């Protein structure tokens, strides 16, 4: 894998409003980050942390129950400013634009919105992006997008750790990526040569004619 193809698998978990009716000012904030940094086809580094939300610091009961986290977990997390710096540091590990891979497009949408709301520079402006869920959908000809853990189960595998934990989901995305890339390479392999390719049949027929 060349340097320009170094990969950053990222997953975020977000805050949720309390109940189905959203507060008119509510917007999702990143509260957990999981990163899998892949270099030369191997996992070089991983990172995981909670992130303290800025605008809605008290996490809803619905969010805590869904993600199986506590307010204490979130309060002990890094600040949003530090979180952006860490992402920038990963981007800077490669001299060429690093490729960011996510399952779905929400992670980068929410990150961009959170950066705007908090006056921070979006850390991946020069990066390439790949939505693996869309690649998976196109590759298998599915009509709808498949959930992360359903996709890995369709391969007869199991997800890493616990679903909706950022690092576990980032690692599961990496594992699906490897499976899909392997299938792509398999389909691109040339067909084995036929006996006609191996033998000059004109010479064989000439021998029979004599």
Domain module count: 1
Proper CATH architecture:
2-Layer Sandwich
| Dominant shape | globular
CATH structural class: Alpha Beta
CATH superfamily: Ribonuclease H-like superfamily/Ribonuclease H
Strand content: 15-25%
What class do helices, strands and sheet pairing give?
Answer: alpha/beta
Mean pLDDT over the residues? 88
Topology:
Blueprint: E1 7-14, E2 30-39, E3 42-50, H1 61-67, H2 71-75, H3 80-91, E4 99-102, H4 106-117, E5 128-131, H5 132-140, H6 148-154, H7 166-188, H8 195-198, H9 201-209
Parallel strand pairs: 1-4, 4-5
Antiparallel strand pairs: 1-2, 2-3
GO molecular function, one term: nucleic acid binding
Protein name: Or 3'-5' exonuclease KapD
Keywords: Exonuclease, Hydrolase, Nuclease
Question: How would you describe this protein?
Answer:
The chain has 210 residues and is an alpha/beta fold. It has one domain (3-209): Ribonuclease H-like superfamily/Ribonuclease H (Nucleotidyltransferase, domain 5), CATH 3.30.420. It has nine helices and five strands; from the N terminus they run βββαααβαβααααα. The chain has helices spanning 61-67, 71-75, 80-91, 106-117, 132-140, 148-154, 166-188, 195-198, 201-209; strands at 7-14, 30-39, 42-50, 99-102, 128-131. Helix 6 (148-154) crosses helix 7. The longest helix has 23 residues, at 166-188. It is globular and about 50 Å long. It starts with 6 loop residues before the first strand and ends with a helix. This is Or 3'-5' exonuclease KapD.
């Amino acid at each position: 894998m060349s340097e320009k193809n170094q990969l950053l698998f990222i997953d975020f978990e977000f805050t949720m409003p309390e109940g189905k009716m959203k507060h008119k000012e509510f917007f999702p904030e990143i509260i957990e980050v999981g990163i899998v940094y892949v270099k030369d086809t191997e996992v070089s580094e991983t990172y995981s942390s909670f992130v303290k939300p800025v605008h809605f610091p008290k996490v809803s009961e619905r969010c805590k129950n869904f993600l199986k986290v506590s307010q204490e977990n979130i309060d002990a997390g890094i600040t949003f400013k530090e979180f952006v710096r860490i992402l920038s540091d990963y981007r800077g590990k490669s001299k060429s634009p690093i490729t960011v891979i996510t399952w779905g497009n929400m992670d980068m949408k929410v990150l961009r919105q959170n950066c705007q709301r908090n006056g921070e520079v979006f850390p991946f402006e020069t990066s390439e992006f790949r939505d693996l869920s869309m690649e998976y959908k196109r590759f298998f000809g599915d009509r709808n997008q498949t959930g992360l853990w359903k996709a890995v189960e369709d391969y007869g595998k199991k997800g890493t750790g616990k679903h909706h934990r950022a690092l576990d989901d980032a690692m599961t995305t990496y594992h699906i990526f490897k499976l899909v890339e392997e299938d792509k390479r398999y389909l691109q392999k040339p067909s084995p040569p036929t006996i006609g390719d191996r033998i000059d049949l004109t010479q064989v027929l000439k021998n029979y004619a004599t």
